[in-house]
Amino acid sequence: MPMTALTRGGTEYVPEFLMAIDAQKCIGCGRCYKVCGRDVMGLGGFTEEGALLIPGTEEYEEDEDEIIKKVMVMTNPDACIGCGACNRVCPSDCQTHAPLDA
After folding, report:
1. In the chain, pLDDT over 70 holds for what percent of residues?
2. What secondary structure does DSSP assign to 25-85, as a single string?
3. Which of 13, 22, 38, 80 has its CA 20 to 30 A from that of 30?
């Protein structure tokens, strides 16, 4: 059975959490980042060699200047509260959301 939550008014709902971002579909626009108040995502990128660099990692710090395509990546997935705001503003449909099993 999925985990449920309550709205302020007491209505029950099932939160759907960000599970993945398809880096091949992401256009790096940052709209999801701007609406997320929980710092779940960050702007990473692909190098010419095809390596995906994640912000906050040693590889990112060393090779940030070699990024040729910026994309959003999950940097703190455990902070997601399942509000779905990021999914509603995403123009490229690159995110996967799902409820958690309780």
Report:
1. 99
2. T-----HHHHH-TT--EEEEEEETT-PEE-TTSHHHHHHGGGEEEEEEEES-GGG-----H
3. 13
